[in-house]
């Protein structure tokens, strides 16, 4: 079994990006600037935006964290997005999800300027992705593709089973794995809560990508020998013995599934850190496009 070490690969990617940023500085160019909008004080979201800001510092990007109270109205958030769209200093920005219930997430995602949409969630970018056009690919699926590529995992003609059809992971992942090229050229089954015979389908998969958010859902007896296992589940489970009072658990029973798998991502340290690294890659792309458009 080979571990798909997202922590290591994400550090490699950050080092590569830092080199590009240094080149920009040497040419006297402005460095990329990412803004992150956080509405409310959900603990996990605070951790994730904190990691995004820290990652920006590490590679030499500028960053701006916009914190808004959990009582923020939809119009207040849309006004802030308009400001960020119009701010020439900001190359790309994200609105951390999930949003509080009084805000319509779809309206918010539609309001983001597609050229600054480094999350790749705007329908324009999502559509371009589905049509194989150059665009911002959502960071988590993008990170999974990068891991498969860097570990030279063969995806051509393989049966990939994606578990979960969220707009952030499952849906884009299913499109990307079926695309022409590599990683891709896979035959994809997208499964969800209404899928019949899901265990039978999973047992036929060469590659399983689980984005369900149910701790230890995927057991060893459900997967075939030598399957590639990608665990996107990140659930916080109370554990008083830990300094933070919780531990992070994936969808996969790692201890037993790893004995059967050819490749597997750990949780933590797998797909999560890759999400941050690929957001930086998208921001670098946004900066380059922004710079070229100004010429
Ligand atoms: N606007 C967005 N919102 C959300 C996204 C997103 O891509 N854009 N994805 C997730 C959360 N997410 C990034 O925002 C994210 C999740 C997990 C990690 C990560 O590094 N996890 C660590 C564990 C960290 C911990 O909780 O202590 C790991 O797996 O090793 C990074 C980013 C939903 N919202």
TrEMBL record:
GO annotations of cellular component type: cytosol
A molecular function GO annotation: methylenetetrahydrofolate dehydrogenase (NADP+) activity
Keyword Transmembrane helix: no
Record pathway: One-carbon metabolism; tetrahydrofolate interconversion
UniProt xrefs under InterPro entries: Aminoacid_DH-like_N_sf, NAD(P)-bd_dom_sf, THF_DH/CycHdrlase, THF_DH/CycHdrlase_cat_dom, THF_DH/CycHdrlase_CS, THF_DH/CycHdrlase_NAD-bd_dom
Residue ranges occupied by any Tetrahydrofolate dehydrogenase/cyclohydrolase NAD(P)-binding domain in the UniProt entry: 138-290
SUPFAM superfamilies for the chain: Aminoacid dehydrogenase-like, N-terminal domain, NAD(P)-binding Rossmann-fold domains
Domain Tetrahydrofolate dehydrogenase/cyclohydrolase catalytic: 4-119
Binding locations of NADP(+): 164-166, 234
Gene Ontology biological process terms in this record: L-histidine biosynthetic process; methionine biosynthetic process; purine nucleotide biosynthetic process; tetrahydrofolate interconversion
Pfam families noted in UniProt: THF_DHG_CYH, THF_DHG_CYH_C
This protein's UniProt keywords: Amino-acid biosynthesis, Histidine biosynthesis, Hydrolase, Methionine biosynthesis, Multifunctional enzyme, NADP, One-carbon metabolism, Oxidoreductase, Purine biosynthesis
Documented EC number(s): 1.5.1.5, 3.5.4.9
Reactions the enzyme catalyzes: (6R)-5,10-methylene-5,6,7,8-tetrahydrofolate + NADP(+) = (6R)-5,10-methenyltetrahydrofolate + NADPH; (6R)-5,10-methenyltetrahydrofolate + H2O = (6R)-10-formyltetrahydrofolate + H(+)
UniProt key word Hydrolase: yes
Biological role stated in the UniProt entry: Catalyzes the oxidation of 5,10-methylenetetrahydrofolate to 5,10-methenyltetrahydrofolate and then the hydrolysis of 5,10-methenyltetrahydrofolate to 10-formyltetrahydrofolate.
Subunit structure: Homodimer.
Family: Belongs to the tetrahydrofolate dehydrogenase/cyclohydrolase family.
Protein name in UniProt: Bifunctional protein FolD
Organism: Aquimarina spongiae
Gene name tied to this protein: folD
